[in-house]
Specification:
The chain has about 100 residues and is mostly helical. Helices cover about 55% and strands about 0% of the residues. The radius of gyration is 37 Å and the shape is rod-shaped. It starts with 11 loop residues before the first helix and ends in a 22-residue tail after the last helix.
Length: about 100
């Protein structure tokens, strides 16, 4: 009969030699996986939406009637109004 080769025994020395050969590759793979995990976790944190109740409860502001009147008196950009020049000054842009 033919002699069959027996598989090598895995010893600490053989594992150490293998790790020494592939040290840089393992380091790069572990570092890459860590960075990918970090990006995924950071993305999940940034994607979380805050609930409207939290936003509404933190904003407690009031408008008095004078502020409301001032806002209502504002004009839109489509209104055609003449620019108001102070008395005694001439508008340099008029023809």
């Amino acid at each position: 009969m033919k002699n069959k080769k027996m598989p090598k025994k895995i010893t600490a020395k053989s594992i150490y030699r293998y790790l020494r050969k592939t040290n840089l590759i393992i380091y790069i793979i572990v570092l890459g996986c860590g960075l990918v995990g970090y990006v995924i976790v950071l993305d999940n944190i940034l994607q979380k939406a805050t609930s409207d109740s939290v936003i509404e409860s933190s904003i407690k502001s009031t408008f008095d009637q004078t502020t409301i009147n001032k806002i209502n008196q504002l004009k839109t950009s489509t209104d055609n109004t003449e620019p108001q020049v102070p008395n005694g000054r001439v508008n340099p842009f008029s023809e």
